[in-house]
Amino acid sequence: MLRNTKLNYGLIAIASHWLSAVVVIGLFAVGVWMVELTYYSAWYKTAPHWHKSVGILLLVVTLFRLVWRLVNPKPAPEQNHQKWEKISAHIAHGAIYLLLLVIMDAGILISTAEGRGIMVFDWFELPGLTPLIENQADIAGDIHQYAAYSLIALVLLHALGALKHHFIDKDSTLLKMIKFNRG
């Protein structure tokens, strides 16, 4: 079953969720490691190229996920969920998507601050933008960094919430994002 139902997530939602989770955590780890590289490191040019390329592909996946959410039903929350849990989950999911878009837009603004495009794995080039503001790379860099740390904190909270539902509440919230109904 590719599409969501009122009871379960479909394979596309599940696969894109977990792909995004792995990529976000990986990009964060690489980003933290990358800023410590020196000019003489063998990874000085390669790591940023991969980071940007994967980030652009994640932007495509994120935009796809947002569209997919609009055209698919969302499985109903468990009946035992409290109102505050439903509201918190809604806010957290919205904040995760917002932070993802802010991080990726800021990354594009960093990389194109001098008018150069972004090569994505030598497959295609995202065209460069004319600098929009003075000190664009520095300002966008700060936004990129703080939004990334905020996103990771929110992802951890999201994961803890899923584990709480699974181990404490013993409901199927986490299972809906792990198993898909084959129809």
Automatic annotation (TrEMBL):
The keyword ATP-binding does not apply. This is Cytochrome b. Residues 9-178 form the Cytochrome b561 bacterial/Ni-hydrogenase domain. It is found in: Cell membrane. The lineage of its organism: Bacteria, Pseudomonadati, Pseudomonadota, Gammaproteobacteria, Alteromonadales. It is a multi-pass membrane protein. Its cofactor is heme b. Its main location: membrane. The chain crosses the membrane at residues 7-34, 54-71, 91-113, 146-163. InterPro entries: Cyt_b561_bac/Ni-Hgenase, Cytochrome_b561_oxidase, Di-haem_cyt_TM. Gene3D superfamilies: Transmembrane di-heme cytochromes, Chain C. Keywords: Cell membrane, Electron transport, Heme, Iron, Membrane, Metal-binding, Transmembrane, Transmembrane helix, Transport. It comes from the Bacteria.
